[in-house]
Request: fold
Amino acid sequence: TATLLNADKTVGQGFELDLEAYLTDSLLVTLGSSYNDTEIDDKNLAVPGCGGGCTVTDPETAPGSGLYRIDGNSLPQAPKWVHNLTARWAMPVGDGGEFYVFTDWAYRSEVDFFLYDSVEFTGKSSVEGGLRIGYNWNQGDYGVAVFGRNITDQTRIVGGIDFNNLTGFLNEPRTVGVEFSARF
Reply:
């Protein structure tokens, strides 16, 4: 059964920053950052806890009721901090060719997956990075690269299902590969 809940009020505030700069003629760096402060503001709003026996940390409305007050909780899937950083260095080679190195990094602070707070359904902070080394030629019409995603091989739970078990789903594992591209 799915239930639609309406809170008296939710409060959200924060900021976002995006910067892009060529630090040299061949090095481009970007930075993105955001702060998000969200809160449910409803002293009477209560929700059932998970169906699979998780450890809910919110107060119960009454002992043994299975309903938990969520006043003051953050909104689900709303991390306080998100940061992104990229850097691309390139060097011209020959007539219309380019050798490049590109890296990207993403950070997300701790996040709650559901309206209620629980030990098992709180995602730890996460840092993931990628690296690509390649060569483009014919003014970028063709390219070859080696790449890696999640190069630190960090494993994090990024969501969950709370019906009757403790099911979570994970981020993508480390991936490495080779790519050839042609544009026409």
The chain has a mean pLDDT of 94. The chain has no helices and 13 strands.
